[in-house]
Structures are given as C-alpha cells and as structure tokens.
Design brief:
- It is elongated, with a radius of gyration of 23 Å.
- Strands 2-3-1-4 form a four-stranded antiparallel β-sheet, covered by helices on one side.
- The protein contains five helices and four strands.
- It folds into two domains: about 5-85; about 90-170, Alpha-Beta Plaits (2-Layer Sandwich).
- By secondary structure, the chain is α+β, with helices and mostly antiparallel strands.
- The termini are far apart.
C-alpha cells in the first residue's frame, strides 16, 4: 500500500493535467486565447508536480510510472468527455432532402433553427440543400428533428470557426479585426 499511494496521486494528477490540456487545445483552436492561456497555466503547474513526483522515485517505485502512463490515458478520455458535455462552439449542418425538404425546413424553423435553403440537382432528381448554423449544444436536437422528419436525408455536420450575422447574430462575440 505504501508504494500505491504515490502512484495513485500521480495517476490523479495526470488525469487533471491531461484533461485540462485537452480543453486548452480545443479552446485555443476556437480562438478563446485568454481561457486557453489560463488553462495552460493550471495545466503546466499540475504537470510539473506530477512529473517531478513520478521521476523522483521512479527506480524505487515502478508503480509511479504505471500511474503516470495510466493517468495520461485516462486524462485523455476524461478531457474529451468533458468537452463533449460542455459542447462549446458552433456547427454547420448541410442537409440534402429529396422529398421532405419543405417539411424539414418548417420543422427546423419551428424549433428555432435558422436555415438557408438552396435548390440543387442530385444524381437523378431535384433536391433541396439546407444549411443550418447552430450552437453545438443543440446539435443532437437538430439531428433528431431531421431523423424524425426525413429519415432518408443526407447530413454532414462540421465545426465552424467563425459565424457572424444572419438569423443568429449572437453566435460570435465581437472581436477586434487585425489588418
């Protein structure tokens, strides 16, 4: 037990610093530089404590290395899970509907989603292409509406870096423009 307690501490520290690091990278990619910097400060402090604890007694207690490695793997999983729960950011869905396009557009609009509809030409018939930009937190709701209204619809969903104007102007915080 004497050798497992330090290993469990290192394991816990690694879960914390790797989870924070995962969130830091995601926020940095979304342009949230102050939040990312703050998370980086916390992450590096926890990391330094974890690595120094692991290396200080690595030869005497190999469980510390196991705790370090297992904490890294678990921290990656925990960080990704936390980010999914937070669901920050914006998504764009491109929906191609062959037969239920008007019903689908009406259902999405009734649920408060802004959309743009464009007529298109598919492989063998006319289709409608719907573009929906929405908060990521509403992604599952949007997909359920689509599945319930037109189970045959073709859908792609991607993360949006910047979205401004249009039906949902509150999606982007005002930022200074660099020239």
């Amino acid at each position: 037990m004497e050798q497992l307690l330090p290993a469990l501490l290192i394991f816990s520290l690694r879960i914390c610093d790797v989870s924070i690091g995962t969130l830091r990278m995601l926020y940095a990619m979304r342009g949230r530089k102050y939040l990312a910097a703050g998370l980086g400060l916390i992450e590096s402090g926890v990391f330094i404590f974890a690595i120094s604890s692991a290396l200080a007694t690595a030869r005497q207690n190999p469980w510390n290395m196991v705790g370090y490695a297992a904490g890294f793997a678990t921290g990656t999983f925990v960080g990704m899970t936390l980010e999914t729960w937070i669901a920050s950011g914006t998504i764009i869905a491109r929906i191609i509907s062959k037969q239920r396009c008007q019903d689908l557009a009406a259902a999405l609009r009734a649920a408060g989603f802004g959309l743009t509809a464009v007529d298109g030409h598919g492989q063998s018939l006319q289709v409608m292409l719907l573009f929906v930009v929405a908060p990521r937190k509403r992604g599952k709701e949007m997909l359920k509406i689509i599945a319930d209204t037109d189970p045959e619809a073709f859908i792609t969903v991607d993360t949006v870096g910047v979205a401004r104007g249009g039906y949902i102007p509150h999606l982007v915080r005002p930022t200074s423009v660099r020239k």
